[in-house]
């Protein structure tokens, strides 16, 4: 499988060993957010680093980032593990705060109770607040109560969860406006209103507000209602029939 491997390192020897193995990224928990040795070594690796921010102040996060000026991509990870974390303590909206304050990619480490139906979909909230990374635990059998089992999904649950998150990410799309897609253009032509004749306008008539209406006509030519001042007072170049789109060719002095 083409899967990136991130290693969760808790001390320098483990981190050094992991980097030598050619890993794709490093995970540091909030336990090492204030550990300059781990921060600096992770930064020197040039690898992507996910940095836990749970139960940390904004100043602590800022100080940690200052120790990693030459780091590869750094992703701030919001979330904490309280075996499990109760819903009132999830504070998923803080993802938006971290993005705003630090201008970095932010992810969400979900450790809510895996027995709760909401645990299957709570990361939809994270995506909505701009999370670009999601951390979810998996276990073969939650009833065996292995490490971190409280927040872990079983394989079938994980498969459904991943499918849901991928579909949601597709629907979320990208933040910010981009050039119109074919779908945007199709909808724009269908939806946007244009200026049309509301009645027959004989050639030479000076157009007034009573002569026009704003209607959808599945065309992008002509004038939008915001351009009404470019139509009013102009003379019709020829007879304009009712519900005909008014464009520059229809105006004698456009």
From the spread of the alpha carbons, the general shape counts as elongated
Q: Approximately how much helix is present in the residues?
A: 25-40%
Biggest β-sheet: count, sense, barrel?
6 strands, parallel
Order of strands across the widest beta sheet? 1-2-3-4-5-6
Radius of gyration of CA atoms, rounded to a whole number? 29 Å
Describe what you observe in this structure.
The strands form 2 sheets. The protein has a 6-stranded parallel sheet, with helices on one face. A two-stranded antiparallel ribbon has the order 7-8. The chain is built from 7 helices and 8 strands; from the N terminus they run E-H-E-H-E-H-E-H-E-H-E-H-H-E-E. Helix 1 runs parallel beside helix 2 and helix 5 packs parallel to helix 6. With 254 residues, the protein is of the alpha/beta class.
Q: Could you write a compact summary of the structure shown?
A:
By secondary structure, this protein is an alpha/beta fold. The protein is built from 7 helices and 8 strands; from the N terminus they run E-H-E-H-E-H-E-H-E-H-E-H-H-E-E.
């Amino acid at each position: 499988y083409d899967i990136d491997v991130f290693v969760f390192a808790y001390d320098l020897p483990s981190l050094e060993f992991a980097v030598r193995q050619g890993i794709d990224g490093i995970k540091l928990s909030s336990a090492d957010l204030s550990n300059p040795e781990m921060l600096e070594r992770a930064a020197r690796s040039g690898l992507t680093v996910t940095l836990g921010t749970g139960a940390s102040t904004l100043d602590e996060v800022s100080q940690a980032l200052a120790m990693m000026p030459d780091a590869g991509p750094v992703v701030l990870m919001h979330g904490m593990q309280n075996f499990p974390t109760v819903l009132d303590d999830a504070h998923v909206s803080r993802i938006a705060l971290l993005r705003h304050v630090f201008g970095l990619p932010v992810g969400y480490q979900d450790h809510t109770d895996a027995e709760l139906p909401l645990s299957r979909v709570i990361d939809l909230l994270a995506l909505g607040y701009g999370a670009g990374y999601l951390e979810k635990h998996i276990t073969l059998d939650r009833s065996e109560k292995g490490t971190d089992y409280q927040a872990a999904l079983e394989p079938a649950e994980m498969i459904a969860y991943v499918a849901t998150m991928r579909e949601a990410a597709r629907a979320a799309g990208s933040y910010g406006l981009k050039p119109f897609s074919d779908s945007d253009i199709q909808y724009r032509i269908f939806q946007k209103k244009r200026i049309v004749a509301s009645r027959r306008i004989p050639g030479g008539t000076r157009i007034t507000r009573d002569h026009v209406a704003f209607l959808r006509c599945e065309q992008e030519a002509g004038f939008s209602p915001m351009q009404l001042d470019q139509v009013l007072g102009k003379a019709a170049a020829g007879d304009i029939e009712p519900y005909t789109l008014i464009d520059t060719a229809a105006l004698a002095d456009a």
